[in-house]
Description:
Elements: E1 2-6, E2 9-12, H1 20-33, E3 37-40, E4 46-55, E5 58-62, E6 65-69, H2 84-96, E7 106-112, E8 118-121, E9 133-139, E10 142-146, E11 156-160, E12 165-168, E13 177-179, E14 194-200
Antiparallel strand pairs: 1-2, 2-12, 3-4, 4-7, 5-6, 7-14, 8-13, 9-12, 9-14, 10-11, 10-13
The structure holds N-(carboxycarbonyl)-S-(3-nitrobenzyl)-L-cysteine and fe (iii) ion.
Amino acid sequence: WAERLSSGTVLLHGWACAGDAPLCAAVEDVLLQSPLRGMVTPGGQRMSVTTASCGEWGWVSDRRGYRYSAVDPDSGQPWPAMPPPLRELARGAAAEAGFAGFDPDACLINCYLPGARMGLHQDKDERDFNAPIVSVSLGLPAVFLLGGLRRADPSARILLQHGDVLVWGGPDRMRFHGVQPVKPGCHALLGERRINLTFRKAR
Ligand code: MD5
Ligand code: FE
């Protein structure tokens, strides 16, 4: 069911559960071509989440900062294409949330092993903040922190389970957000991992 969390945020509970096996298989296939890697923050710290990309643009990070790149800096090659089932899932979820016509050009794949977390941050490397972001949670559950437009604003805790899809747009696109450390567990399809797909209009 669709739960409106605020004016621009919709949580589609279990939206990706039907067809989750081929979806996870498509993700595993991308990861064979674009391996997960530990990004380095501009401060020199390695993130506990590992990241890969598919689509026209991939998100990369190093001591020079964060940016979108058309080329995988590790392989020197373009990123793997976005598998059509992933693109269709993102387009359908965006339309359901009121963002018909969303056409993502980047899909980030974040992998959380037990203990991995993501600190509070804003996503502001994309060119067009009017386009929504679609986030698909797969595998182990996690507690998502949904903050406000200022870092010091209080955060709501939202449990994200396998198959849940969140769509952020409009005024909520720039909220601070993060993920609490993932608890140990084993998921039938993905094992001891949480995988999050985020679909974006990067450029
Ligand atoms: C995750 N990933 O669960 C999250 C899901 C990231 C990231 O945060 O940057 O890779 S995406 C959550 C998100 C994206 C854009 C806006 C907002 C949340 N928001 O305004 O709350 O791995
Ligand atoms: Fe983010």
